[in-house]
Design brief:
The structure is a single chain. The chain is built from 15 helices and two strands. Strands 1-2 form a two-stranded antiparallel ribbon. Helix 5 runs parallel beside helix 7 and helix 11 packs antiparallel against helix 12. Bound molecules: 2-acetamido-2-deoxy-beta-D-glucopyranose (5 copies). The site of one 2-acetamido-2-deoxy-beta-D-glucopyranose has 4 residues, from helix 10.
């Protein structure tokens, strides 16, 4: 996942281009009325799809060249939209795009992008495919099954488990030439791998996945990433003196400032995974603790308990990634409430408050464009695809109280009707074809000689590794 600078410059340009004929049409929303929520979700999702061009002539399905991982967030939103509303309008595009980007090896390392991806980028696509399997989104006739794509990502990432530093974990980035991101271990990459393993374990019943989930959790708790007393989740951790097996590097946090350590998704991606472990008191305590933390931190009293990305929203400096996290949290919250019913009464009211505020932000550009800061309860002048994705997700999540009684909405497993084809060896059968890195920009030129050597050596190692 790349952290581009501020979104506000692009947003401002876009805003200037598209402004005109402005009239304030809010998304009308009665949070206690099923049809009203469906209509609002349809409006937000339509707005989201105005940013998607993958089904047009000459375009590539599912491709988001400058922000590849965000495609997975869009498809994740479409899956939930379809699941909770029953509206199949976008299912063809969803199916084609989610399949297209899986790459020739079926592990979401498509060669157009694979040379600059982080473990988290690949993981999000794997989670979207996992969701497709869990929601019984039909497998394609020709291509990879959704379950096997999730397995492909799992197999690929398990091969990158690295005990050289701190006895385990995944680094943020995949390749040495990605610099700092390769020497750092972060919560999203490990939390995501944990979640994927836990969900695969739940779906297939295969203990290989649950062993890896437990191993990743235990490792995370043994580092500063997850504190199993306070339930604080930190962004990342890094050695100070290069790669050593010494544990002392752990004392350094890689954080730009202390308050940068607890962004929305890093806690929730881990939190969501506990839905697979409800029988076990240890897991329940962790779920409870993480939920407490998340609710207290990101649903603050000062906003009237409206969900807020607390670090960037007040200063209006959220980047594209950060705009997406409220949507992802909404989705995961809704599934936690389904899988662990005892959490429903704590989660659902917060999702309702969020949805009402989110819908009120959608008065932009004369066409219901949504803003970033939901707690403003009005359009804040920052439109974008990410904004539409998040609002689509929080609205879909709010259909839970209605659909819960009419049909089974719980994610399925292979023993409760899930029929996505399993392939435990997915992603391992063919070598991954990778291209070279992007042309080196001026800023990266220092040390290019060393970089090239390191690259060549590790390239060979990687290829060998991938082929095992
Ligand atoms: C692409 O999908 C949109 C719906 O999101 C639809 O309105 C449009 O007609 C489709 N375009 C093509 C070329 O199929
Ligand atoms: C990769 O790029 C080529 C050339 O633009 C395109 O034909 C192909 O569909 C792309 N594949 C993916 C997965 O984006
Ligand atoms: C683990 O990290 C070290 C550098 O710390 C690297 O040399 C090695 O190739 C990595 N192993 C794997 C499996 O990625
Ligand atoms: C918390 O994490 C520590 C460090 O890994 C571990 O020793 C301890 O058993 C964990 N406690 C619980 C309750 O899981
Ligand atoms: C979470 O909060 C509830 C209510 O305040 C409290 O009873 C519970 O002990 C907390 N759970 C954990 C694990 O801290």
């Amino acid at each position: 996942m790349h952290m581009p600078g501020s979104f506000s410059i692009c947003a401002a340009v876009l805003y200037a281009l598209t402004l005109g004929g402005y009239s304030a049409h809010a998304i009308q929303l009665d949070i206690h009325n099923e049809q009203s929520i469906k209509d609002a979700a349809a409006t937000a999702t339509w707005g989201m799809m105005t940013y998607y061009h993958g089904n047009e002539t000459g375009q590539i399905p599912g491709a988001f060249p400058d922000k590849w991982w965000e495609g997975s967030a869009l498809f994740y939103a479409l899956l939930n939209y379809w699941h909770f509303t029953g509206d199949t309008t976008y299912n063809d595009e969803l199916s084609v795009g989610l399949q297209w980007q899986s790459g020739s090896n079926g592990d979401y390392l498509p060669s157009n992008y694979s040379h600059f991806l982080g473990n988290d980028d690949q993981m999000f696509w794997g989670l979207a495919a996992m969701t497709a399997a869990e929601l019984k989104f039909p497998d394609v006739k020709h291509g990879f099954s959704w379950l096997s794509l999730a397995q492909g990502v799992f197999n690929s990432q398990k091969g990158r488990w690295n005990t050289t530093m701190c006895g385990g974990g995944l680094t943020w980035q995949m390749f040495p030439y990605q610099g700092g991101g390769y020497t750092m271990k972060n919560a999203i990459s490990n939390g995501g791998f944990f979640q994927l393993a836990a969900r695969l374990a739940r779906y297939t019943g295969d203990s290989e996945y649950s062993d890896w989930a437990k191993k990743t959790w235990d490792w995370s708790c043994s580092t500063p990433l997850v504190n199993n007393q306070t339930w604080l989740v930190l962004d990342s951790t890094e050695g100070t003196d290069g790669f050593t097996a010494e544990p002392r590097w752990l004392l350094e946090f890689w954080t730009r400032c202390p308050s940068d350590i607890f962004e929305l998704y890093r806690a929730d991606i881990i939190l969501f995974s506990f839905r697979t472990k409800t029988g076990d008191q240890q897991w329940y305590t962790a779920l409870d603790g993480l939920l407490n933390r998340t609710l207290a931190t990101f649903f603050p009293e000062k906003t009237g308990y409206v969900m807020e990305e607390i670090l960037c929203e007040p200063r209006q400096i959220c980047n594209n990634n950060e705009v997406l996290f409220k949507g992802l949290l909404s989705t995961w919250f809704s599934y936690i409430a389904i899988i662990v019913p005892s959490t429903y009464d704590r989660i659902m009211p917060k999702l309702q408050i969020a949805a009402v505020a989110a819908a009120a932000s959608c008065t932009g550009q004369g066409n219901n464009a949504c803003g970033v800061r939901w707690y403003e309860s009005k359009y804040d002048g920052h439109p974008g695809m990410e904004q539409q994705i998040s609002v689509s997700q929080v609205l879909s999540a709010n259909l839970l109280p209605f659909v819960q009684t009419s049909k089974s909405v719980a994610p399925v497993t292979s023993s409760t009707g899930g029929d996505s084809q399993s392939n435990p060896d997915a992603g391992l059968t063919n070598p991954v074809v990778k291209k070279g890195p992007d042309p080196i920009s001026t800023g990266d030129k220092a040390g290019a000689g060393i970089l090239t050597v390191v690259l060549a050596v590790t390239w060979a190692a990687m290829m060998a590794y991938a082929a095992i």
